[in-house]
Design a protein that fits this description.
- The protein is of the alpha+beta class and 468 residues long.
- The chain has 13 helices and 18 strands.
- A hairpin with a 5-residue loop joins strand 9 and strand 10.
């Protein structure tokens, strides 16, 4: 009864178990052992205890036969000690080899050799092989990457750096791990660098920072360090992985561009400052001439010339005030220009309601703004001088409207009044005057077209393209 009980336990054991004689021949094997070794047959067959290797046909990892002397069971039999090994076993030539975890131990009974326990670990070995291939691929990619790569653990300490990092710093991995990498950061950047790293780490957020890192030759190079959190599939925080790029050349280009822009701005400010001052001197000289002019007609001509110069001077004042030379805010500029003209050319009818309708964000380039300013100077001056010739009572108050708007890719400049209007005969006469010739020249300069709508009142519209 006891022998039968042990036989049942022997056959129910989840591992393959075999017992050999003193010559290494199998004399007994349980059902799991038969299933593993009996050429993968579904039903175990009675074991022939004669010439049979204890664990079947073993092969090396490269597929060549494994000598009998290297079998775990024969080593245990020969050395009279327990032996553990992981070995490959081939069922048939047309089936892939399986990995077995084999443990053999001598049996201290006369006539017996060793007891061998073995289990199929092929799935585990396949996982290990896949992991090893992934590790080799990771090392191949990271160690040939142009970027300097690093990995840190959840304690903020760095645990790994790739070969390009070590080649860049000229230090060993042992010197860089932990907080050792910080020894290469420029002292002026270290506090900011550590604060950025710790702040992002505590928040579990990606970060990017620029700092100077000492190269193996002692030269500090500007680098861009970007880090990203690492998490296991369940969401467990593992630390950070980061990449570092040498951006010294980029920083030098940026510095050169910044210096060039500063030099250009300084030059432009000096030029505009001189132009503005020169225009003011010219305006002062003309103002002196107006007072001593021999006739009202001469005074009037000098005033018109003064306003034209003043319109250009205002442009430079706005440029100088804003500190930018790319574009002019037309709303402020035109409003100031129009009211300046209103002060100089007050009509006999008295106060004129002069309104400017221009969007605050509308801007023109410097060249367009100067041409547009001179054009407005002529049109608004003409309206102030001729639209309201008498102070006779009117049903409606004198009114002048100035507008500039953008429609798709076209600017529309409009000057409209509710004055006496301009007849065709007067238009033909005015075409020969300096003011109207100047208007036509400025419209051509803007690559625009001039539209005239006669009475009641007068409306003049100039249409010109953006960026003309």
């Amino acid at each position: 009864m006891t022998l039968e009980k042990y036989r049942v336990l022997f056959d129910m054991f989840p591992l393959g178990v075999a017992i050999t004689d003193s010559q290494g021949k199998i004399v007994e094997m349980n059902q799991e052992g038969r299933r593993l070794l009996d050429e993968a047959s579904e039903e175990p067959s009675p074991l022939d205890p004669l010439p049979r290797s204890p664990l079947g046909r073993m092969v090396r990892p490269d597929g060549t036969p494994l000598p009998r002397e290297e079998h775990a069971s024969f080593r245990a039999l020969k050395e009279r000690r327990p032996v553990h090994a992981e070995q490959r076993w081939v069922v048939r030539d047309d089936t892939p080899a399986r990995w077995l975890d084999v443990t053999a131990a001598p049996i201290p009974l006369e006539g017996y050799g060793v007891a061998v326990a073995f289990g199929d670990i092929t799935p585990r070995k396949e996982v290990e092989r896949a992991l090893e291939e992934s590790r080799q691929l990771f090392e191949s990619v990271t160690h040939t990457s142009p970027a300097l790569l690093w990995i840190s653990g959840p304690d903020k300490k760095c645990t790994w750096f790739n070969d390009p990092w070590l080649a860049f710093t000229g230090r060993t991995l042992a010197q860089e791990v932990g907080d050792g990498w910080a020894e290469g950061v420029h002292p002026d950047d270290l506090e900011r660098c550590i604060a950025t790293y710790h702040g992002a780490f505590d928040a579990r957020k990606p970060f990017a920072m620029e700092y100077r890192l000492r190269r193996h030759d002692g030269v500090f190079r500007w680098v861009l360090d970007q880090g990203h959190p690492r998490c296991a599939p369940p969401g467990t925080f593992l630390g950070y992985i980061g990449s570092v790029l040498d951006i010294t050349a980029q920083k030098e280009v940026e510095q050169n561009l910044r210096q060039a822009l500063e030099d250009r701005d300084a030059l432009l400010r000096e030029v505009h400052h001189r132009v503005k001052n020169n225009l003011q001197v010219i305006c002062s000289l003309i103002s002196l001439k107006i007072d001593g002019a021999p006739s009202p007609a001469t005074q009037d001509a000098l005033r018109e010339t003064l306003t034209r110069i003043r319109s250009m001077s205002l442009i430079h004042e706005h440029l100088y005030r804003r500190g930018t030379f790319a574009a002019i805010s037309m709303a402020t500029y035109v409003t100031e220009l129009a009211h300046h003209l209103q002060e100089i050319f007050a009509p006999p009818s008295g106060e004129v309601d002069l309104a400017v309708a221009i969007a605050p964000e509308l801007r023109l380039s410097l060249d367009q703004a100067i041409s547009c300013g001179l054009l407005l100077n002529e049109l608004v001056t003409n309206a102030l001088k001729h639209a309201f010739p008498t102070a006779a009572p009117r049903e409606d108050a004198p009114r002048i409207r100035v507008a500039l708007e953008l429609r798709e890719h076209t600017f529309l400049l409009t000057v409209q009044d509710n004055g006496v209007g301009i007849g065709e005969d007067l238009m033909e006469t005015d075409r020969r005057t300096l003011g109207l010739r100047l208007v036509q020249a400025l419209v051509r300069q803007l690559e625009g077209t001039l539209h005239f709508a006669p009475g009641p009142g007068c409306q003049i519209t100039v249409e010109f393209p953006v960026g003309a």
